[in-house]
Structure formats: C-alpha cells, structure tokens
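Minutes, methods subgroup
Present: GH (chair), OT, SY

1. OT presented the first of two proteins processed in the latest run. Sequence and structure tokens recorded below as shown on screen.
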Amino acid sequence: MCQIKVFLCDCDGTLTDGGMYYLEDGQQFKKFSVADGIGFELLKAAGIKTGILTGEVTPIVEHRAKKLKVDYLYQGCNPQGKLDAAREICAQENISLEQVAYVGDDLNDLPVLECVGFKGCVLNAHAHLKALPGITISPKKGGEGGVRALIDLWLNNPRVLG
C-alpha cells in the first residue's frame, strides 16, 4: 500500500455545510468547521501536503485556504479540472495519484475519487459517492467536522501512512 503524501478535498458541501448564505447587500458568507481546520494542522504536522479543489471562485475560499496554510488551492475547477489539478499536484510532488487522499461530497468529485489511493466522503454526500468501492464515509456531515473525522481515521491507521 502506498503512503499518503497529499490530502486534497472539495470545499462547498465538504468543508462547509453546502449552504449559500447572502446578506441583503448581496455579500456571501460560508460556515467552516474549526475541527476541520485542526485536522489540516494535524496533517501538516504529519508531513502531509494539503490542498483544496473547488468549482467556486470566491475570496472567502482563498481566505480560508490561507488560514489553513494549504499548499495548493485550485478554484474554478469543473469535475475534470479537479482531476487535472490533482494530477498537476502529483507531478509537482513527484508522486502518483495512489499517494493522494481526497474527500468530496457530490458528483463533481467523482473523477478524482475514482483515481486516488484513499477516498472519502462526508456523511451527507451524494449516494453515488457513498457507493464507490473502497470509499470511507465520515460519521459527520460537511461543515460539521466531517473532514476532520476522516483525517483522524487516516492518521490513526498505520496502513494509510505507510
């Protein structure tokens, strides 16, 4: 089994609850979980690179990525674009997709999930993701520590970390 070198995840519905919140003036905001943020810190401490691949393009995600100190942020990705981004990251890190863990929540995450070594989804993910062979389903929903729960599982599984 290959050792995980990079942890990637989707944003909306995975790191957030999937809601689109707007103020009267049109300003958007998102709810993120502090527990997920600590999970990213734990990954960094374990020497694992991190990244966010998302279809949205917002300053909110950029701010969150900076706060989490992720190594990679790709915004505006269509489903194939997420896989292309993962491949680009692998090339930069000189690793294979087998050494990547990915967490998502919806159909646009399927192309990446079908190719990575370790796949996960949050509890409220689409049924097609939950049905993927070998996927780990978080006991928690997106935006409610769902990503952290998977990080904890992976970090505590010696088979995953090599």
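2. SY then presented the second protein from the same run.
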Amino acid sequence: MGAYIFRRLLLIIPTLLGIMIINFTLTQFVPGGPIEQILARLEGGGDVFEGIAGGADAGLESAGDNSGYLGSRGLPPEFIADLEKQFGFDKPPLERFLNMMWGYMRFDFGESYFRSISVVDLVIEKMPVSITLGLWSTLIAYLISIPLGIKKAVRDGSSYDTWTSGVIIIAYAIPGFLFAILLLVLFAGGSFYKIFPTRGLTSDGFDQMTAMGKVLDYLWHITLPVLASTISSFATLTLLTKNSFLDEIKKQYVITARAKGLSEEQVLYGHIFRNAMLIVIAGFPGLFISVFFGSSIIIETIFSLDGLGRLGFEAAVARDYPVIFGTLFVFGLVGLLVGILSDLMYVFVDPRIDFDVRET
C-alpha cells in the first residue's frame, strides 16, 4: 500500500503542472487583462469588456494607440510601462510562469492585484463559507440517500420504487442554479413567500444574539443554499446506494443467512449493510469535494455568499491572476489528494482491498 501511495503522490506533480500550464496558456489569449482593466477605469470607460464588445467603433478609437491596450489613449507610455513592471508583465510569459510556479512550490501565492491582501489570507478568509456549504450538503445527501436507497433496494420493482425513481431523475435533471432561483422565487420574497433571507450567512446584529439565537439565525440563512447544492448529489447517491444493495442481496452469503433463520432485518443490517456501504462510505471525500468545488461558484453567487466560489468568479471577471491561479493550484492539489484519500477510505472500510496486488 505504501508503494501505491508513493506512486500516486508522484503523479500529483505532472498532473498539477499540466493543469497550470494549460490554464496559464489560455489566459494569454483572453482579452481584458488587469492592465486593460485599470486603464479603462482611469479613462472613465467603465468595464474594459464594454470596449471589447464595442465592435468597430472601439477598434477605430484604438487604431492610433501603439501601447496595445484598450482605453490607454492620453496616458503617458511611462505610466503604462510602470504598470506592466508592477504587475510583472514586462517579462516574457515563460519567465512569468516559471516564477509563479517557483513561488507556488514554496506556497507563496503572491498578492491580489486589486484587494491589497495576500492570496493565502484571502483564501483562508473565504474558505469557511464554502466548507460550511459543502459539508452540510454532503451530510444531508447521505442522511437522505442511504435510507431511501435501502428502501428502494428492498422494494425493487414496486410502485414505490418506480415513482421515487421518477422523482430522483427529475431532481438530477434540474440544474443547481435553476433550482436555486426557484427557491428564491418561492421562499425568499419572490412572487410567493418571504420566509428565508436572500443573502449572507448571518443577520445584522449577529454578535449581540444569544448562543441559541446565533445557531437558529445561521440555520435560517443556510437552508436555501444547502438545498440548492444538495439536489443533484442526493439523486446520484440514492441510486448508488440502491444498486450497491441489490448487488449484495443476490449473493450466496445472503441466502445462507436466511437459511439459518435470521430475520430480514438481521440479514439486511447485520450482513448486507456493511458490505453494500463500502463504496458509499468510501466515496464521502469525493462527494464532498464535488459539492465543494462544483456547486459553490453558482450557489454562492446567487445567494451572495462570500466564499471561495464567488471569490473565483469575481477574480475571473476582474482578471485578478494571482487569485485565479492561486485558487486553481490549491483546488487542484486538494482534488488530487482527495482522490488518494478516497482510495485509502476503501482500504479503511475493507482491509481486504489491496491496490498493490490489483496493479501487479
């Protein structure tokens, strides 16, 4: 097992390097970089994307501009050169990439272009919101999916199994952002009821509340975002649980247990459960990461939650490259490590699994 883990850890290096190379290369061809953002604002042009979308008129206005930046007319070349030096754009792309990766190897992610704060401090500040959303969503998905999947397996082929499968498929087909908007319209002051708040994780005056008041206020704010991010993962996990139980029910040891006179409940929870739940329990880290990374951007933006997903979205719009690449590096590293953790969970749940034997 140690050799397998060592090989997986070594594979992280080229995989992570490939992720960074591809994304860094793509950004070199994307218009509206940080220098253009600043110049457009200084020239009173608003967002730089307005100029990019302006078509022929914008092109004619910048035709006589030798700096190569939209919105830089009337600004001295020395000022633009100072900006390029400040942001490191006076160096060729390869040198900038190597310097960036050398810093990342030492976990030095630099400082945000527009927030005057280090990327590490920014990620630490925003991470609790995203972890909260991902953890609650994953726990609720397991609490719903496991009992539901077991009941569907026991009553396989019945009318209950049929109509619950229909509900699950519909839930899986609904995009998370669409379900989030539906929840806002129905329960957050849209066209129907105003039961839940539309933004943030706490109310004004949160610090003055009692301990129980803080807990209730927090749960009040987190209800809709958690429901929106749980819907697709709960559907997948339910079907996974059902199929896992169906595979175990047909095996010989179950027939033997019934032949010994054990009740269905003893057979189900004393024998089938621990074997069928191997893949479900071992998949917990992967499901958490998928919810944490996959749903956070849209859900946090819709519900105005100040987490990593919203941070990444705002950084992409503003072309805040240190934040974009720093969070990408951290997310990529965490995702690869969680993949190894998921394999270790299989061994922890069932010591009979040996990945070294499987590979030989």
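Chair's summary of item 2: Residues 47-66 have pLDDT under 50 and may be disordered.
Next meeting: continue with the remaining queue.
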